């Protein structure tokens, strides 16, 4: 839920600020920067909560903490790539693939009631998927609209 708020609040603030500029396609700029800010926000979680987030990775996959750290680094790189007009299109395509690839980890975490911020507390369980799955599709649509089309 926090990433959604970061994305939307950043977007609204940038659009409000951009109305005072002459920039064409300022909403495209705002959409990409808002996604970049959200990705930087979520990347912080990959480093701050790496052990808890590693529990989201299915048991049969080795090097869980390393995978979490790598995905945090990828999110930082995606944030940078969206901010550069020449790389935005390919970053957007890669980011959509990334969003599709991480959905099973979120489903696994919900199924096993994993709290990615604190392993000692149970996560919300399967009801979380009623938010997470549509949110994932929303993120994919956002990236497609602002970065690819």
From TrEMBL:
<keyword id="KW-1133">Transmembrane helix</keyword>
<keyword id="KW-0472">Membrane</keyword>
<keyword id="KW-0812">Transmembrane</keyword>
<protein>
    <recommendedName>
        <fullName>DoxX family membrane protein</fullName>
    </recommendedName>
</protein>
<feature type="transmembrane region" description="Helical">
    <location>
        <begin position="28"/>
        <end position="47"/>
    </location>
</feature>
<feature type="transmembrane region" description="Helical">
    <location>
        <begin position="129"/>
        <end position="148"/>
    </location>
</feature>
<feature type="transmembrane region" description="Helical">
    <location>
        <begin position="90"/>
        <end position="109"/>
    </location>
</feature>
<feature type="transmembrane region" description="Helical">
    <location>
        <begin position="67"/>
        <end position="84"/>
    </location>
</feature>
């Amino acid at each position: 839920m926090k990433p959604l708020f970061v994305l939307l609040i950043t977007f609204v603030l940038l659009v409000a600020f951009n109305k005072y500029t002459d920039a064409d396609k300022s909403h495209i700029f705002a959409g990409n920067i808002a996604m970049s800010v959200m990705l930087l926000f979520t990347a912080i979680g990959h480093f701050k909560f790496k052990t808890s987030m590693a529990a989201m990775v299915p048991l049969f996959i080795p090097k869980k903490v390393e995978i979490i750290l790598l995905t945090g680094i990828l999110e930082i790189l995606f944030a940078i790539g969206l901010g550069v007009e020449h790389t935005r299109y390919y970053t957007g395509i890669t980011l959509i693939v990334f969003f599709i690839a991480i959905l099973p980890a979120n489903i696994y975490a919900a199924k096993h009631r994993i709290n990615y911020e604190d392993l000692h507390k149970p996560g919300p369980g399967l009801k979380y998927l009623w938010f997470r799955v549509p949110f994932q599709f929303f993120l994919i649509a956002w990236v497609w609209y602002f970065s690819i089309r």
